[in-house]
Amino acid sequence: MTRYIFKRVMSAIPLLFGLLTFTFFIIRLAPGDPVSLYVQGDVDPQLAENLRVQLGLNDPLPVQYVKWLKSMVTGEMGVSFSRHADVTDILADTIPNTLLLTVFALFFNFLIGIAIGITTALKRGTLADHTVNVISLFVYSMPEFWLGLMLILGVSLQLDLLPASGMHSPMARFLSTPAYIWDLVKHMILPVFVLGVASAAATGRYMRGSLLEVINQDYVRTARAKGLSEVLVIGKHALRNALIPIITLLGLSLPFLLGGAVIVETVFAWPGMGKLTVDAIFARDYPLIIACTLVSGVMVILGNLLADVLYAIVDPRIRYD
Amino acid sequence: MTERSPEQIEGGWMHRHIPGVHFIAHGHRVFGWLLLGYFLMFPVLILLNLTAFIQGFQSMGLSAFLVTVDYHHHTLFLRGDVMEHWLASVFALGMPVFLWWLNRRRLERMSQGTYEHELSQWALAWREFKRNRVAATGLVVIILLYTMAFLCPYFAPFHPNAFSDGTVTKFRPPLSSVPILYQQPTETASERLASLRMQSDYPSLVRDLVLINQDLTDEGFMNTRAVEAYRVEGSNVLATVGDSLVAFPIADLVGSTPEEFEGSRFHLFGTDSYGRDILSRIIYGSRVSLSLGFIAVLLSVSLGTLIGLLAGYFGRFTDSVLMRFVDVLLAFPALFLILIIISAFETVAVPRVLLIVLVLGLTSWMGISRLVRGEVLSVKEREFVLAARTLGLGHTRILSRHILPNILTPIIVNATLRIGGIILVEAALSYLNIGVQQPTPSWGNIIFEGKDFLSHAWWISTLPGFAIVLVVVCFNLVGDGLRDAFDPMLNNERA
Questions:
Q1: Which superfamily does A90-314 belong to?
Q2: Most CB within 10 Å of its CB: which of A160, B2, B12, B77?
Q3: Are B226 and B297 part of one and the same domain?
Q4: Chain A partners of B339 at a C-beta cutoff of 8 Å?
Q5: Interface size between A and B, measured as CB pairs under 8 A
Q6: How does DSSP assign A104-150, residue by residue?
Q7: Statement to judge: residues B179 and B303 lie in one domain
Q8: Per-residue pLDDT reduced to its tens digit, A283-318
């Protein structure tokens, strides 16, 4: 097992390398003067030339590439020109905000999804099963941003129950700690719901299939035959095995922690990575765009890695050498 | 089904020439009526829009002629909005002809007695699919939506970009009608034409073409004034426009009685912040969403299949290189790769729609290629591939004739399920305002436009969303239905 994990970690390194390379070439392949990637607006030719020398843009491409790799690996992501701050600092500010949103969304997704999956699997063929299936189909066929807007329209604008956007109320700084947290929670409910609900529908569908498959297995029949209560049969015998594929799904959802909230953050004006990326794109702030892409790319690789390792731990039937 | 004698199948003129009649007569009622209804829809639509239909062909013919003899002025005839009308006319004529031909061919095959016996995999799957009511309904809705997308000008009550008198017409809620006054034309078509000063060997043809094109692309709001209310006072009509009272001399209006100069415009889904009709914009927006989704999936499926085939078939080095490349691309979170490419290539002078199609297609093939590779790995070990290789067939032939046909069904199912996803991504891009740009309507950008007016004009953002949900749900249903139809084993298990 240790060897398998080691091998798996090793194989992630070329991926990281590939991610960096690919990003470099997309940016270099892009038309236009690379100087415009670092300075905005019209630049006088002499200054542009100086910059070119200074940034090493006159070097041959391989040299530039190696330099770029070095700066990325050492964490020097450059300076954002739309926010006039170090990219690393900006990321350090925004990543926690995104995580706050996505961690809760992930919980929501799996709790609700597994609950839905179990209910529909056990009540297969009933009206409840069909109703939930139809609702799931509609929910995951829905654009996130539209669902978000509809909730803002209904819950915030019409009923005035929850705030429509942002992370804090304007006066939040002056609130006592519990009131401050309550304010934050109120701002979180809608985005977390929108982020979680579509994936919960998918998880539920997955869980339903997985449990149905397990329920027909011999060992479940054996458990029933020896007179165990239905709760024990499902909870102890069937569920454990049915959850194995869900673990993989969980691992595959990890990258979503940083990359999945682009749309929802934009809709709810949540100051996280996703909104940062979109803003950076509109500002043509390349150092920031690259940094966001890389950070979330690294997250995907780590997520997949974790999923594989988890899978190996959870399912002893699979032996890796 | 028992065999039929040829006379029975001949069944007279109606059976042969009107698609659907034969099926109704032979027990396939639902399918028959649907086919018949769809077939008859075209003549009805053509009759209702006869002028536009004929003008579409006239414009196409004249342009074709003028382009061959006089290429210099091609920018004048080859305009996107006019070509949309050519497409509509060709589709309105072509589709029923195609249906008629298909129907005849099938009846001919039936009468030769070959049809019922050779039930191919496809025919079996089709039979299975038709039994699945939900999926079949999805397919019917999709066909109708695509038809609507091709024939936008016939379905939309107004031109999608037409607006006038914004203060009066903007933010009209659904089901509202706006009173309008018809004015005397201030400028005749020939006057407008005079300013076009064409230098051509065929001035009269050019003139005809320009006039026809003008008719086709006329936004329809010329010489009308939208008002909130009006009353006749002496020789003037006093109308409320916004906060002010405007007087129109009756002499400037068409006719002299209210019956003659008064009209109204009905907006089923209301109007947006400029006063453009939402229903028309949604209908025209279906063009972008439906065609983009389809073409992008076509592109990504072709590319994914090609790469998966190569990786799976040749294995070893090819496989490692291609699959590592796939891994790297998959390491980018869903939207980020698309966002970074669009932002890098934004400045390239290609139409935005094309850029979006390319980016969507080129960033979504990885899943398919993994799927195809897996299938190829299992198929290539089978005896028939070995046999083909023993016969000394080339790689290309083995891949295209022996392996590809055997892995086609999972590809088709996957592609269908993907279209919905791509439509959602396209809408999301439009919502982020980096997708298809105004004034071209797309479902995503109508929602984007309406989001700032959510509190007092909810309908702008709400209604296009239902269109998206409808299409994506239908594609998902059809995809699920296809999967079940192609896989009878799975079907038994589910029941």
A1: MetI-like (1.10.3720.10)
A2: B77
A3: no
A4: 262, 277-278, 281, 289, 293
A5: 135
A6: HHHHHHHHHHHHHHHHHHHTTTSHHHHHHHHHHHHHHTS-HHHHHHH
A7: no
A8: 777 778 888 888 888 888 887 788 777 777 777 666
